[in-house]
Amino acid sequence: MRPLRIEGAWVHEPRVFADGRGSFVEWFGGDAFREAVGVDLRLAQANCSVSRRGVVRGVHFADVPPGQAKYVTCVRGAVLDVVADLRTGSPTFGRWDAVRLDDSRRCVFLSEGLGHAFMALTAESTVVYLCSEGYAPLREHGIHPLDATLGIDWPVDRPPLLSDKDAAAPTLVEAGRRGLLPSYAACRAHRLRSAARSPGNASTRA
């Protein structure tokens, strides 16, 4: 796993074993994940979404604590997966990074407090993601994916398809005024507590 430009986000490029029968890939390994990230991935929920070409989902995030960390891959088609730093006080606040997820089987991990979105680049794009916390409507929020301040460079040749909820989401500035955005300090403190609780992290048990 290698870090992205946003602190708290990584991309994993697993080796794909292919032969005449098809292919095999280990898209998640607990030991390798812990070594790279410093915490164990707590699995509370697994989601699968199928999207038409041009659909944009996000930018979604949750209150911290507990937040919702995500480990994301695309098992069919292709998507542009985006991580946005929504943490007030972060050195990269308001910036974003993107990774194409497709049959290369790349995976993206984003820590609690970061915003997540993706655009379907093909028909029937199928995204699977593991979540550290279950869905909790009262803790879930969003930023409009076309917000000019955030400025995500979506590869569009037609107007993106948004849900009613995402189309009505506030801008980054509006979300800040409402007090919806997580703080960088709270996210770091939460991550340190998570590392201390990780049973496989020997460095935190000294």
- CATH class categorisation: Mainly Beta
- Quickly count the domains: 1
Number of strands: 13
CATH superfamily: Jelly Rolls
Mean pLDDT: 94
Q: Class by helix and strand content?
A: alpha+beta
Query: Residue ranges: pLDDT <50 for 5 or more in a row?
Result: none
Number of helices: 4
Tell me the strand percentage band. Answer: 25-35%
Q: What tags apply to this protein structure?
A:
13 strands, single chain, 16% helix, six-stranded antiparallel beta sheet, Jelly Rolls, 206 residues, five-stranded antiparallel beta sheet, alpha+beta, globular
Element layout with pairings:
Elements: E1 2-3, E2 9-12, E3 16-19, E4 22-25, H1 30-37, E5 45-51, E6 56-62, E7 70-76, E8 79-85, E9 96-101, E10 107-110, E11 114-120, E12 125-131, E13 140-142, H2 164-167, H3 172-177, H4 184-197
Antiparallel strand pairs: 1-2, 2-10, 3-4, 5-12, 6-11, 6-13, 7-10, 7-12, 8-9, 8-11
Structural account:
The strands form three sheets. The chain has a six-stranded antiparallel beta sheet, with no helix packed on it. With 206 residues, it is of the alpha+beta class. Helices cover 16% and strands 33% of the residues. The chain starts with a strand and ends in a 9-residue tail after the last helix. The protein has a single domain, classed as Jelly Rolls (Sandwich), CATH 2.60.120.10.
Give the structure's gist in a few sentences:
This protein is α+β, with helices and mostly antiparallel strands and 206 residues long. The chain has helices spanning 30-37, 164-167, 172-177, 184-197; strands at residues 2-3, 9-12, 16-19, 22-25, 45-51, 56-62, 70-76, 79-85, 96-101, 107-110, 114-120, 125-131, 140-142.
